[in-house]
Amino acid sequence: MSLKFPLIDHVLVNVNDQLDEAARQYARLGFTLTPRGHHSLGSSNHLAIFENDYLELLGYEPQNAGRVAGVWGTQQGLAGLIFKTDDADALVAPLQARGVGLMSEAPQAFHRPVELTDGTLRDARFRTLHLDLATTPSGRIFFCQHLDPDLVWHAPWQQHANGVYAVKRVVIASQDPQAASAVLARVFETSELEPIEGGLRLRTGQASVEFLTLARARAIFGTEIELGPDGADRKVGLELQTRSLQDAARVLETNGVPFERQSDGILVPASQASGVALLLVE
Fold first, then answer.
1. Is-above-0.90 flag for pTM?
2. Which of 70, 143, 147, 277 has its CA 20 to 30 A from that of 79?
């Protein structure tokens, strides 16, 4: 992937010390979650793996609170937007050359043990490069290089009862969508993002990242969603693509999850998904 052609690698939901409850919520929504993983940095996670991207529930266990509590903020919800890269090191120079602030001069390396469904145990290794938090008030935006992608995109983990197979849209609510989108326009050599109702859109392959006013975001994802503290930008909602809205609705009804049928999909309120509004569409 080059900086001219952005692709979403995954989205990250911060659940802090509520990993057990978050895993229960997402299982009720019909997602197949990976066994709990433990990063060398101290955080722990569960993943919902799709065809080419995934959703991560990230938190920590009590013994690691001193190491990582608060690193991703104190508010539960969508806290990370992560783009694909095949070479995190190669991004540093071109990003610095175009004035993009970074959290460090070099990518961060870390790993977590992964036990596959056949009992094989290996380390999944990653290198990440984070944009400067001062330029991304909605939370972290970074690049992730997978050194062992087969340990993430493992076929038995890619089948979900709700039929979801892709992240279709990430929505960031802002009082000023133009200003909020400026950093990604610079990162991806895009002088102009696509104007849409209530904001701007960055195309990311078959998906998109949209920067919208709160009013427009609420029109899509419901009135539960809010901006961040003091009116800061906030990642508020995901549109996920499913093979069958009928199957998704059946799972939600069976598990007693409240949802709203819309003309083009199913809306799961943020209160039912660890602070993230989910719109399922075919």
1. yes
2. 147
- Rounded to whole angstroms, how far apart are CA atoms 226 and 11? 19
Q: Which two tokens stand for residue 103?
A: 């959290």
Centre a 10 Å sphere on the Cβ of residue 198 and count the other Cβ atoms it contains: 18
Per residue in 38-85, pLDDT tens? 999 999 999 999 999 999 999 999 999 989 888 888 889 999 999 999
Euclidean distance between CA atoms 109 and 112, whole angstroms: 11
Radius of gyration of the chain (CA): 18
Question: Where are the extended beta strands (E) located within the chain?
Answer: 8-16, 37-38, 44-49, 54-59, 77-84, 108-115, 121-130, 140-146, 164-173, 194-196, 199-204, 207-212, 234-242, 260-262, 265-268, 277-281
The CATH fold assigned to 164-281 is: 2,3-Dihydroxybiphenyl 1,2-Dioxygenase; domain 1 (3.10.180)
User: In Å, how far from its chain's centre is CA 75?
Assistant: 15
Q: Which residues pair with 278 in a beta bridge?
A: 238, 268
Give the fold, CATH level 3, of 8-157: 2,3-Dihydroxybiphenyl 1,2-Dioxygenase; domain 1 (3.10.180)
